[in-house]
Amino acid sequence: MSDLLWGALALMLVVEGLLPFLSPTLWRQVFSRVLAMSDGQIRFIGLSSMVSGLLLLYFSWP
Fold first, then answer.
1. pLDDT tens digit string along 6-60?
2. Which one of 11, 18, 33, 62 is at 20 to 30 Å from 4 when CA atoms are compared?
């Protein structure tokens, strides 16, 4: 089970690193837009991301 969690963490880091590696200028623009958002907007994005991930796990689990 821990191997699966480490693999998921490693994959997340790879995906998170793609945009800054491929297009640092675009990444800066996206980051500056996020800084301009309110706390409520950022929390909603985080909640939506977590729910989407949980749904993907639920429907893809064997």
1. 998 999 999 999 999 999 999 999 999 999 999 999 999 999 999 999 999 889 8
2. 18
pTM as predicted: 0.74
Residues 49 and 43: their CA atoms lie apart, in Å, by: 10
How far apart, in whole angstroms, are the C-alpha atoms of residue 4 and residue 57?
13
* Rounded-to-integer distance, Cα 12 and Cα 9, Å: 5
Q: How far apart are CA 5 and CA 13, in angstroms?
A: 12
Q: How many Cα atoms sit within 13 Å of 12 on the Cβ side? A: 9
